[in-house]
Amino acid sequence: MMKNFRKFSFSAIMCCGLFISAYAQPVTAPLPVKVVAGKQGFNLTRAGKPYFIKGAGGTNYSDRLASYGGNSLRTWDSRNGQDVLDKAQKLGLSVTMGLNVARERHGFNYDDTAAVHQQLERLRQEVRKYKNHPALLIWGIGNELNLQYKNPKVWDAVNDIAKMIHQEDPNHPATTMLAGVNKREVDYIKVRCPNLDLLSVQVYGGLAKVPQQMLDAGWQGAYMVTEWGPTGHWEGPQTPWKASVEETSSEKAAVYKSRYEASIKQDKHCVGSYVFLWGQKQERTPTWYGLFTEAGEENEVVDVMQYLWTGSWPKNRAPHISSFLLNGKPAADNIFLQPGKSYNAVAAVTDPNQDKLTTRWELLPESTDLKEGGDHESRPQPINGLLSSAVTNKAILKTPEKEGAYRLFVYVSDGHNKVATANIPFYVRAAAQ
Length: 433
What we know:
By secondary structure, the protein is an alpha/beta fold. The protein is 27% helix and 26% strand. It has helices spanning 2-24, 62-67, 81-91, 113-130, 153-168, 183-192, 210-216, 249-262, 300-310, and strands at 33-37, 42-46, 49-50, 53-57, 72-74, 94-99, 136-143, 174-179, 199-202, 223-227, 270-275, 320-326, 335-337, 342-350, 358-365, 387-391, 394-398, 404-413, 419-428. An 8-stranded parallel β-barrel has the order 4-5-6-7-8-9-10-11. The chain has a 4-stranded antiparallel β-sheet with strand order 12-14-17-16. A 4-stranded mixed β-sheet has the order 13-19-18-15, with no helix packed on it.
């Protein structure tokens, strides 16, 4: 009897230990996501409830994203995927997880069946690794695979990846991200990618036209906008020396708001979007696409996004810049200056909260490390010692002696982590006009 008692005690202890061990482990279960067709359009559901994506591209400042009314973030690959998903879960955010698919413009050959298969199996492991995480929302297959490509077999590979995702993970939809809206690519995808659950497009200056463009291209399914933002550097004015003219942070705020309200907010086929970029990067300039400075200051676009996501403006608003002039001229006026001469720079900036403003000026050579598709660019080194300023909104620029293209930046901060930004490209030459 004692022997049986010992057996019972040991079994009970083991069962109890297993129970405690199981209880101590975090419970992770996927929240099923579906694309649901309705009478007028499409919706996403997550765990059976309607889910409209109020998202941002990037993993920086995700705590701010959550507190400002966003509900989702988007990545371009699955590096650090576990950390990204875990942090998102703690903040109540979901994640459209990017799967890094090789691009033809970087040298990948979609006629190489062995390499294509190897890529598929690599991505299978990524899907298996993260498929049950409750923060996962959608799988994003590649990024702008239609940019500078020729081989339509890429879409066969995309479909095979989507098919694999459905085999491994029945709980999350699959999409692929296109650069722009193009009927040729939409036709390819309709024929070659039947396993995609929805389409994703990435559009900047033309965002307001996307609903009509999708119709014209023949896409009748659900879609989301996985990148959108300011007027792209390839879309706006350029100087004679091929420098793109960037909108001020306040001009960006206006177009973000108007374009979103004309498209993403209105189109019943659109299930949400990811604003670009919830962070900072060098792409043509250090300020063109990021909603934040390198120091983490928020520009006026962040205020707009909080309004679009919640219907309410933040209590503290970013400074508003209404004009920026160099030698009395705005950025679009093709400014030529003489070497070694002094010129006035003037920024007209107001603060909605009447905060005390401080200004930082920066002179950079025009960037020459120019890439496509968001590939990494190096930031130009600042040129010091040529700017002086006695007041907040004015500076005196002494131009470099070396002939060439330059850009003058102004950053106006309110002391509460909000900022206005602007820049002016100019060209130094001896025979300046």
